[in-house]
User: Fold these one by one.
Assistant:
Number 1:
Amino acid sequence: MNDRNRQPDRNRPRPGPPGHPSDGLTDGRLVELHSQLARDKDEPAQGFSLTPIFIVFLFCGFGFWAGLYLTRNSGQFSAAVFDLDAPKAVADTGPKIFEPDAAKGEKLFLVNCAACHQPTGLGVPGAFPPLAASPWVAGADERIIKAILAGLAGEIEIKGAKYNGNMPNVSASLKDAQIANIATYVRSAWGNSAEPVMDTKVAEIRKAIGVRGQYAPKELLEAHPLETK
Ligand code: HEC
C-alpha cells in the first residue's frame, strides 16, 4: 500500500502552524464546533431590522413634542416676552403642615363608619354603640386612634348599655391623615367637643402598635382609662 494514496483520515489531527489554536483539533471536531457556533448566533439580518424604525418613530414623536412645546412657550420669539424682573414663582417651602379637617373627616366617616355607627352617631341599640356623647370618644385621643387602627371585639359598655360586637380595623385602608380627620370629626360632631387629632399622633401610634388583631375593650381601657363616665 502506498501511503500517498490513502484518503485523509477525517479524525486525524491536522498539523496547523505551531502554536495555532487549531492545534490538536480534528476536522470532525471543527465541523461540530462550527455548527454549534452557527446555532448559537442569530441568522444574519437581511435589509433592516425593526429597531431603527422604532427609533425613527421615537424621533418623530420627540420632534412633534418639541413643536408643541415651542408653539406654547415660545412667546412668538419676541424679545419683550423675556422679563428679567418678573417675580419668581413662590417656592412651596417645606412639607405641608397638617390641619385637622372635620369636613374631610365627615366624608370619610360616612363611607367607613356610618354603616354601623349611623350618620347621626347614635349607633344601633343592641348592635352598634353610639359615638355621640360617648366617653370613649372624649378625652385622650389614644383610645379612639387605637380603636380605629386595630378595631374592637368583646364586651363593652357605653352609656349604661352593653354591647358585644365586632368592629373591623381600617389601618390598612386609611392613611394617618384620614384617620386623624375622622377622629377629629367624631370628636367634634353631635355635641362632642374634644381636641382635634393630628396625623403625627396617628403615625406614632400606628408605629407603636404595629399590625395587630382587634383590641378587647377591657385592654384598651386599662391602657387609657375613661376620663368621663
Ligand atoms: C362593622 C361595623 C363597624 C364599623 C364599620 C365601625 N365600627 Fe366602631 N364599633 C363597632 C362595634 C360593634 C363597636 C363595639 C365593639 C365591641 O363590642 O367590642 C364599636 C366601637 C367603637 C368605638 C368605641 C365605643 C363607642 O361607642 O365610643 C368607637 C370610638 C368607634 N367604634 C369608632 C368607629 C369609627 C371612627 C369608625 C370608622 C373608622 C368605626 N367605628 C367603624 C362597629 C363598627
Number 2:
Amino acid sequence: MIDIDRQICANAWTSDEAMVNHRELCLQYRGRFSASSDAAGAAAFIEKTLNRYGLTNARREYFEMTAWTRGGKAVLELVEPHRARFPCIALPYSPSCNDEFDVADGGMGHPADLAEIPGGVLGKAVLIDDKNPPAGPHLHRLHKYLNTRHAGASAFLFVQNSPGMLSPTGSLAFNHSGPLDQTIPSVGIPSEIAAELREWARRGTLRIRLTMDNSLARGRDCNVVADLGNPGTSEDIILVCAHYDGHDIAQGAVDNASGTVVVLETARLLAPLTNQLRASLRFVLFGSEEMGLIGSHSLARAMEHDLHRIRFIFNLDCVGSTGRLVMMLQNCPEWLPFFKTHIASLPADVDINTHFVPFSDHFPFVVRGIPASFMVTPGIGDRGWGHTIADTFEKVSQETLMRVSMHTARLIMRTSRLTPWPQSKKSREDIIALLESRHMRPLMEHEGHWDF
Ligand SMILES: [Zn+2]
C-alpha cells in the first residue's frame, strides 16, 4: 500500500484541480438548481471532466421530475397592527400566494409546540424555528412542515437559525410521488424578522399578507455516472457519490459543490491506479438532491437488479468547511473496526461514528439494506451558510478539499481491496426500526413511499 499511498498523496497535494473545478461549478453554473439550464451545464462539465480523468462509460442518466420555478420576489407584508414590508424567500415547491393570514408562533414545530398555540393554528401562518431541543428529538424541516400542515395551518414561515438577515431555503418534498398541489404557501425568513413578528404577536393580533408567484412544470434532470475498474476481476461495486445540484438563490459552494469536487478529485487520484483496484468504483454525481433526493431514488430504482453488487457507499455532502472530516457509518457498526484501523494507519484526523442521517443521497440505498457512510466536515454552528444566499465559493477551504480528497481516495482504495466484506445484511425489521428511530415513517407514508 505504501507506493499507492505515496502516489495518491503526492498527486493530491501538487494539483490545483480541486480549486479550479470548485470555482468553475460555483461561478459558471451558479446554484445548479434542479432541472435548470445551469444544472444541465454543470452535468455536461462533470461528464467531460470524468472523461478527461480517464474514467470509462461516463454518461448522463436522465429522469423525469416535477420542476419548480421561483417567480419574482416573495414579499411578507405586515398588515396589522402596523404596516411594514419584509424580505423572505419562497421554499421550493411552495405554491403562489396573495393572501392575508393571522400569525401564530409554532416554536420549534414539534407536535407539543403546535398544540400549545392559543386558539390553535387553523388557517394561520405559523412561525417555525429551524432548531431542536438539545435533548432531541431532532426534527428536520420536512418533519416540521408536515406537522404544521397536518395541524391545519395555512402557511409555513420557516425561520433561519443564525443572524445576518439571511432567509433559509429548502424543499417541501421528499421524493414525492404524487401531485404537489396540496402544499401550503411556505417561505424562509431571517431570524431578525421572526424576532420582530414575535414581538408584535406578543402585543396582540398580528396579521400579514404573503405575496409570491411560483410555478410547477414537468421537468427533466440527470445524474452523471462513470466507472473505474477491472472488468471481469470482480462483480463488486463501491459507489462514490455526491449531489451536484444546489439552490437557485446561491452558488451552493459548501452544499454541495464541495462534495462534487471531492468526488471528481478521488476519481482523478484513483484513475492511474485502476489496476490496483479489486472491486470496481462507480462515481455518481446526483441531480435534484435538494428537491428531495430525486436523483438518488431514481438511480436506486434503475440499479434494482444490481443492488446486491454494491458493497459500500461513500457519500460526500458538505465537505468544504475547515476542521475535521466526520465519517458517519449509517448504522453499520460491523464496518467500524475496518475503518478505525485504516484511518489510524493513514494516519488521519478523521472522526468516525455510526450515526444515521436520512437526508442525503445514501438514503434510498440504506433503506434497501446497503451499507454506507455519510462524509461531512461540519465546521462550527448548525447549517452554517448552507441553504442561504451566503453559501459562496470563498468560504470553502481549498486545503480542506485537497485533504478530504486525499483521505477519501485512500479509504476507497482500501475498501476496494477488502476481502471478505463485513457481514452487513440488514433485515426488513432492522430497517423499519432504524427509520422509526428517526421519525421517518410519517414522512415516507405522506410521500407515498413507505414500502414496508
Ligand atoms: Zn447537500
